Give the backbone structure.
Amino acid sequence: MARSDEAQWWFHAVYEAVQEIPPGRVTSYGHIARLLGRREYNQPTVIDCLLTGLCSSGMPSVGVCLKHLPAFANDGDHFFHDQNVPWQRVINAKGMISPRGPGGASRQAAALRQEGVTVETTALGEFIVDLSLFGWFPTRLPSEEDATTGADEE
């Protein structure tokens, strides 16, 4: 997938932010966007964002970035991949694992369960996580807190 420099930067920013989610915790697509300074899931652009995968800035949504996260390969072609970016820790704002291709939601639920996250199955067969127990919603990324602390000490 050919990307502009700006889009490439955005994909990398999303992957780096997702890497900061602690094991055993989850957050939402929209919260990752907000941590990175985007308000992609707020009205009135939500419909455009969901239908096109692009948000008001023209940049891909967090979900689209994660959808295009490469699989790990020993060829070294990709710095970010599904083995070093914990994609499974990002779910929707209702605590549900978003449906994707065959078996994708089940694979995500299994990966979360391996980390100790309780994933329930609803009567409709949807997977849901209790965000009050497993949610991770900081106001800033831990790496930004570290940078601020370091700057204050100098």
